[in-house]
Structure formats: C-alpha cells, structure tokens
Design goal:
Blueprint (H helix, E strand, L loop, with lengths): L3 E6 L4 E8 L2 E9 L8 H11 L9 E7 L3 H18 L3 E5 H6 L7 E7 L5 E10 L5 E5 L4 E3 L1 H4 L7 E4 L1 H5 L1 H8 L3 E3 L9 H15 L28
Parallel strand pairs: 1-4, 4-5, 6-10, 10-11
Antiparallel strand pairs: 1-2, 2-3, 6-7, 7-8, 7-9
C-alpha cells in the first residue's frame, strides 16, 4: 500500500519538513534559526509539498514530533499539523523527538538520544534495537524518557553506549568523563533530527498502532513549564 506522509519537527532550534512515500524521500527542507518557527514553517511546508511533486490532497497523513523539546516549538509544530490535517480531513500521528533521533543511528549497542534542555540538564532516552522477525529490527525504549543532569541521566549505565543529539554535543566532555571508552558519538551530521526520520518512524508506528486522534495528540513536555498552561495540555513524566 502506497502512503505519503508529510512530517514536521520543531522540537529544537531546528525546523524540518519532509514528504516521504513509503521508504522513498520525495523532498525535505531543514532550517536552523534563532527565529521562532512560526515565521518559516508554513512556507517550508508549501515548498516541500511543491518540490515533492505532490498536492496537499495527495498526502495520506501527517506526522509531527510531540516532545520533548522547546515548549513554543512543540506548540507551533503540533498546532500547524493539526490545523492542516483537520482542514484536509487527514489523519495525524505524534512521535517522540528523542526516539526519532535515536533512529538515526545504526548500532547494536545501547543508544542514548540527548537534547539540550538548558539549566544544566538534558532530555534523554535510552533505546536498543531488537529483532522483530523477517530480518527486521525495531527500536525499543529501555527506560522512560527523562529530564535530568547528565550525571543523573547516566547513573548506572555501565555498557557501551552510542550518543546522539545536540545534548550529547554540548556535554560531550562530561559524558566522556563519566563513560570513558564506553561512550561512542555519532558523526556531527546525524545530531540534527530530520523530518524524513520522523516520517519513517511514523510509517513504522502506523503499521503497529495506527494514527492518533486530534484529542490525543498533545505536547509531551516532560519538564513542567514555568508559566501556567491550559488544563488540556498533557505533561509527561
């Protein structure tokens, strides 16, 4: 079955949009900017749809990272995707930004995805590839995603681990001090989460669990925001 997915990631300072058809990337645009994603996101979506050779009506579903990440970025990405999906009467699916980032590794070791959470903390998740029949491998969560200091996040980790993400870059020296030779770091080009990875992760999740509902697709912040937020916003952790 052919399926076209438009995916969006706005969980960090990077804004990325892609259109994927099954396992083929049709078009992708990624921007790193200090400006709010609302200034670029719709223009990027229009550009990517045009470059893909599709029309919006050709899109079968939308995917978006739901966190953790920057509070404003997550709200912008999710609200934009939900608005488009609602207007076009298309399904939506939300994915963990950490797990999608971890999917950009190819390793048999433990994987730790880290995003810089500021305040000397990181959002982190630990994952491992497991066999899933017919020579397939699925990425499984080892522990719940958290926001902690690097020292706390790595407490008890005593095996080889591959680190990925801007948090791993920002705290590389600390990670090496704690992990020594057990720490392996991905190439710099992989530390940015690409929307195409989010789309592929969505296709994998759709095969197992289907899409989300509009009501269930909410930001997963992990850390509570300083400002008071509406009651209908979900906090994870």
């Amino acid at each position: 079955m052919t399926m076209k997915i438009l995916a969006v990631d706005t969980s960090t300072k990077t804004c990325s949009v892609a259109v994927v058809e099954n396992l083929s990337l049709l078009a992708e645009q990624t921007l790193i900017s200090t400006q709010t994603h609302s200034r670029h996101l719709m223009e990027m979506i229009n550009n990517v749809v045009k470059l893909s050779g599709c029309k919006f009506s050709d899109i079968d579903g939308f995917a978006v990272t739901k966190g953790p990440g920057t509070f404003t970025g997550l709200r912008i990405g999710i609200s934009t995707v939900k608005g488009l999906a609602s207007a076009l009467d298309k399904p939506v699916i939300g994915l963990s930004s950490l797990k999608a980032l971890a999917m950009q590794t190819v390793t048999s070791s433990l994987v730790c995805a880290m995003l810089d959470a500021r305040r000397d903390e990181v959002y982190s998740g630990f994952y491992r590839y497991v066999a899933s029949g017919e020579k397939k491998r699925l990425l499984k969560n080892e522990v719940c995603e958290t926001v902690l200091s690097v020292e706390q996040a790595l407490k008890g980790v005593s095996e080889g681990c591959t680190f990925i993400g801007d948090g791993a870059v920002a705290y590389q020296e600390t990670i090496i001090k704690i992990m020594g030779d057990h720490a392996v770091f991905t190439p710099p080009c992989l530390n940015t989460l690409f929307a195409s990875t989010v789309a592929y992760a969505a296709l994998e999740k759709i095969q197992g669990n289907g899409f989300d509902t509009m009501e269930s697709l909410l930001p997963c912040y992990i850390r509570k925001p300083d400002a008071k937020i509406p009651k209908n916003i979900k906090l994870c952790g």
